[in-house]
Every structure is written in C-alpha cells, then in structure tokens.
Design brief:
Elements: E1 8-12, H1 29-40, E2 45-47, H2 76-81, H3 87-94, H4 100-115, H5 119-131, H6 136-148, H7 159-162, H8 166-175, H9 177-203, E3 207-212, H10 221-225, E4 240-244, E5 254-259, H11 263-268, H12 272-284, E6 287-290, E7 298-303, E8 313-316, H13 319-330, E9 336-338, H14 346-354, E10 359-362, E11 384-387, H15 396-402, H16 405-415, H17 422-432, E12 437-441, H18 442-445, H19 477-488
Parallel strand pairs: 1-2, 1-12, 2-3, 3-6, 6-9, 10-11, 11-12
Antiparallel strand pairs: 4-5, 4-7, 7-8
C-alpha cells in the first residue's frame, strides 16, 4: 500500500450511497466493483463517513457506538449464500415486505444452530469476541436494553440499569440473552464482510479512508459504559455540550449536544479508551480522518440549555498528550488526517504539525477574496489533502450556481476558464494542486447539482439520503477523464 507522503487521489462516497437492490448501499458486490472502477480511473483512495450504527435521524456522526459497525450495511445476499437466510426473504427485504432487522434475526437463529456442530465457525466467532472485547459485550447489552425500553436514552432507564449496578446488569444479560446473541452475530457478519472489502481494496492497491468523529453520542454505549470519561452528571445529563461558535456554515454556530471529555481522567487512565477506539478503526482502515481536529487543542463548551452555539467558551484539551500516547502505541507516523476547518489558531496548526498530520484545503472556500486566501491552490503545500468540497458542502455544480457574480468572476479569472464545464475545471484544479492527496466527491465526478447534496450542517431534514442510481460503466466520461487527469498530474496507480 502507498503512504500519505506519496502523490495520489481518491473518491469520497459514503457506503450508503452505493447503487444496489436495497434501500441503501451495503458491504457487497457493488462495493467491490466500485473499488475496481476507481482503481481503473487512477484513484488510490476510497473515503467514506463513519460506519457506526446510527440513531433514527441517520447521521453517521451520531452513533450508538463508535466501535460497532452499522448492521444496516450488512449484505443479506451473502448471509443467504451461507444458508442462514432464504433467497425469498432477501427478495422480501428488497421489496420492502420484510424489515432487514427481522431478516437478520431469522439468520441469527440458523447461524447459532450451525455453530453447535461447526468447530471452525465457532472458533472464528470466539476469536472475534476476544479481539473486540473492549466494546462488544457492552454494546450488545446496550442495544438490547434500548429495545426493551422502546428506544429511550440510557439516562431515562431505571436507575439500576442506568448506573450499571451489578445485580441489574446480570439479570438483564440473562433475560436478553437471545437478542444479545443476535447483536453479536450482526457484528461478526459486519466484520467478515468488511474484511472481504479490505482485502479486495488491498489487492487493487486502494486504501480505505475512514472518518472518526472526535466526540461520541450522548446516547451511546460509549458514554453509558464509560461515564467517568465524559461530562455527564450523576443522573446522566450534560451540564455542557460540544459544538462550534458561528462560522462559515452557520451564523449561530452549531450545538452538537455531545458530552465533552474529562481530559484529566482520560490522561490518568493512559488514554486507554481512546487507544482501544483507534485500534478498532485501524483494523478496518488504512487512513483515518480525525473530525473536528481543532477540538483536540481547545474545545467550544456550550451551556446545555442553549439551542445554538453562540454562547460558550474555549477550554483547553490534552490533545498533545493524547496524540503522543497514540504515537507511542501505534508508531511515530500515525495514519491520520486532521480535519482542521473552521476557526484554526496557530496552536491547532502547531499540534497538527508536531505529529506530521496532513490538514485539509477546500476549494469551495478559496474564492471571492484576495490572493492571501489559504484555500487557494497556490497556497497549498504537500502536507495537505485538497477537496473540491466535502460531505458538508454543496456539490460543486450547486456551489457554482449559488455563487455571487463576484465569486464567479474570481473563479473564472483564477482558473483561466469561461464558466463552461466548471465542475471539471475545479476537479482539474484539485488534481493539479501541490497537495499530496486530492479527494473528489462522487457527486462532482457525476457533475450533479444541489439535489445531490449529502448534508447541510446545522439542519436535520433531508440529509444523508442521496443514493447513486447506478455505477457508471467504465466507458463513462467520469472515469475516462479521471484516468487521463490522474496520469497527467502524477496521481495514477502504479
């Protein structure tokens, strides 16, 4: 595999957006084919969003666990091939006549029945449970308890369960044994299917680029199981929550609502919870983006009663100590990319550079000002990752159509173009950048408008739902032009 010090490019596409027969993309043949297509076009990296199980609103940045895989991404067709689910049931899921969770429950029963006489499969499951012991049992019990309590957050459960009292937990494990087994089966299946994708990517010379939110959801197995590391009180409520002050994305800032870290307690533990969390991701990914990296230097603490991010204060974090602990455990050169967008101070830049982590440059932020704008390509350096836009931006076509006359004139003047084929002019600019890694959202390769936007920060409706209708065939212009540009700008697969 290549490293971040080499010139390369990649595609940003969350797995849920893959085309296929289900309501969203899954870890199946479409993912394997997508890897082959981007490799053919000269790309060496596939970036996607966090993979954890989501809450009802579907945001991958608000997960029930920062280590578990989303069971909705499991390919039921592969489970059928093992004989644990009928083809008829798979078709019923595709047609919307059977819920995927019901299908997985049926499959789990047959899986455990086979396990009684299948020594090899039993050994594989045992090894998986041992390797993931730091989070798996707590997560399986947590999700089972949420079902019993009709989805209520853990701080509204009976006190004995809320506070993980020994007798109550032992009783719950016994009562909910069947569902706990189903959750473990789902995580085992996710792991098996993910390993198939990772092996195929490595065979094709493609690196998997994952995303790690800096914070975890309040209503998560992480916080319920490790309350001492988070700013929750004895009743489980937050006095302060995470977010950001007003910025490019929102005039009123953003109130994310995540609990903040108790950094002193994390440090006293040797940052073991963080280390275990990173270890799980490093088993899956070749590259990890640390979302909201600036929160490792200082974080915006918002009073819990506020509905926005206007009111708050900056508080120092122990990011240097954390990154040093991670470096000591995983090696000097961490495979991280710092999402250093927003209000970035010299201290944040120094922290990133101290550990040799690439930062990010977004071309959508580059125009409309003067030549000193740090996002303009002539300001880029090799230790950067350049994007046309990210999952939080509009598509490039939508961005262009919404730009002011002044911004459009600046773009045309800077790029030496007349406003035609603007999407590919921006893609070309990203690929020509001095930055070692250039990332292009799939929506931009397809030159799609605002209707294909994946997320609008600070909003709840209409996000995370875009799906690619079909994977363009290899003769499509998006691959042909990519292949030529990747070769032209020295980013092609070797």
């Amino acid at each position: 595999m290549t490293s971040l010090s080499q010139r390369q490019s990649g595609i940003l596409l969350h797995i849920t957006s893959l085309s296929g027969p289900f309501k969203q993309g899954v870890l199946g043949e479409e993912a394997l084919q997508f890897i082959e297509f981007i490799q053919y076009a000269g790309y060496r990296v596939w970036q996607f969003l966090p993979l954890g199980p989501t809450h009802a609103h579907g945001s991958p940045y608000e997960s029930l666990s920062s280590s578990a895989g989303n069971p909705e991404l499991i390919d039921l067709r592969q489970i059928s091939q093992h004989g644990w689910l009928s083809n008829d049931d798979v078709q019923r899921v595709i047609l919307g006549e059977l819920l995927p969770c019901t299908a997985r429950a049926k499959a789990a029963l047959k899986f455990y029945k086979q396990l009684e006489n299948d020594t090899e499969l039993s050994q594989q499951l045992t090894e998986f449970k041992q390797q993931q012991a730091s989070w798996l049992d707590d997560y399986a019990l947590f999700t089972s308890l949420k079902i019993v309590h009709e989805g209520m957050p853990w701080w509204k459960w009976p006190v004995a369960l809320r506070d993980k009292q020994t007798a109550a937990i032992s009783s719950a494990k016994e009562t909910l044994a069947a569902h706990i087994q189903q959750v473990i089966f789902e995580q085992f299946m996710f792991h098996q299917q993910w390993q198939q994708i990772k092996e195929h990517a490595e065979h094709c010379g493609v690196q998997l680029f994952g995303d790690l939110p800096i914070y975890v959801a309040h209503d998560s197995s992480d916080v319920w199981s490790n309350r001492e590391y988070f700013t929750v009180n004895d009743e489980g409520f937050c006095d302060e929550v995470a977010g950001v002050p007003p910025d490019y994305f929102s005039e009123t800032g953003q109130r994310w609502g995540n609990p903040l870290y108790v950094w002193d307690t994390l440090q006293a533990s040797g940052f073991e919870w963080w280390i275990q969390r990173i270890e799980v991701q490093m088993q899956r990914m070749h590259i990890i983006r640390i979302d909201h990296f600036r929160g490792l230097e200082a974080f915006w603490a918002i009073p819990a009663h506020r509905d926005d991010g206007i009111e708050g204060e900056w508080c120092k974090a122990l990011g240097h100590e954390l990154l040093q602990a991670l470096s000591d455990r995983f090696g000097k050169q961490l495979p991280f990319i710092a999402e250093d967008l927003g209000l970035i101070t010299p201290e944040v830049t120094a922290l990133r550079q101290d550990f040799g982590l690439p930062g990010m440059k977004i071309l959508h932020f580059a125009f409309g000002g003067d030549a000193s704008n740090p996002y303009l390509p002539h300001q880029h350096t090799q230790d950067m990752v350049v994007y046309t836009g990210t999952h939080d931006n509009d598509t490039t076509l939508g961005w262009w159509q919404a730009a002011s006359d002044h911004e459009q004139q600046h773009i045309q003047s800077y790029l030496g173009m007349d406003g035609h084929d603007v999407v590919w002019s921006i893609i070309r600019t990203a690929l020509a950048s001095p930055a070692n890694l250039s990332m292009i959202p799939m929506q931009d390769l397809l030159a799609l408008d605002t209707s294909a936007r994946f997320n609008t920060p600070g909003t709840l409706d209409g996000n995370w739902s875009w799906r690619m209708n079909a994977l363009p065939d290899m003769e499509n212009d998006c691959w042909v032009r990519s292949k030529e540009m990747n070769r032209l700008y020295g980013r092609s697969c070797k």
